[in-house]
Amino acid sequence: MYDDDFGGPYVPPERTRATRMFPARSRASGRGFVIAQLRASAAWRQLIFESDLERKCLLVLLSQIAVVNIWDQPPQITYRNEGGKPTFHTFDFLVTLEDGKRIAIAVKPDGLVERNGFDREFALIKAQTPKQFADDALLVTDSSFSAAEVRNAELLHMFRQGEDAEADAAVQQILRGMNCVTSLGQVVAAAGLQGRAFRSGFKAIFDGIVLTDLSLPVTEASMLSMPEAR
Description:
Blueprint: E1 2-3, E2 8-9, E3 32-37, E4 44-49, H1 52-62, E5 67-72, E6 77-80, E7 86-89, E8 93-97, E9 102-107, H2 110-116, H3 118-128, E10 136-140, H4 147-159, H5 165-176, E11 182-183, H6 184-191, H7 195-206, E12 223-224
């Protein structure tokens, strides 16, 4: 069957590459998945998360232009804990950047880190993570990103689910013709495509075509500039 919106047969997303799957139900966490198209592959892929914090982390990672690939629940590593006992750790994500650097990411709530002293345990994990597995390791907590970053990442993920080549082309033509700092609302008005233009302009920011202050929520009031203008 063909879908008029995509111009071809429906192709289901590839399954997660996770090496550890979660139980289907849990009272303690919110399990789920997102479907994303990573720069390392033309195919859409299922990426799983075990908690809302992991979901937020995943969406923020997907919004970063330098990220080309994400492996959810990659193979476990072995390390020695504080007592010297060999044990295992599975990172939540293994991220590959466009320069080839790989970052292993562990996601834990601030409260759990404080109560269980996981920061000390993570220091051991990071020090013993094999270089052939990852170049660096990072502990991500609730305080690692702002509400604005999460809100922008959630909207970006939603906007990327549907293609609109006409709106993208129209908005990018306007953006590349900018000769001064311009608001996203002005670009939307010039394109005459209303919400479609807003979505395309929003995506253009995260594609690096224009710049804005991403420490704030992206709205029509956001001021845009060309990369070479800063």
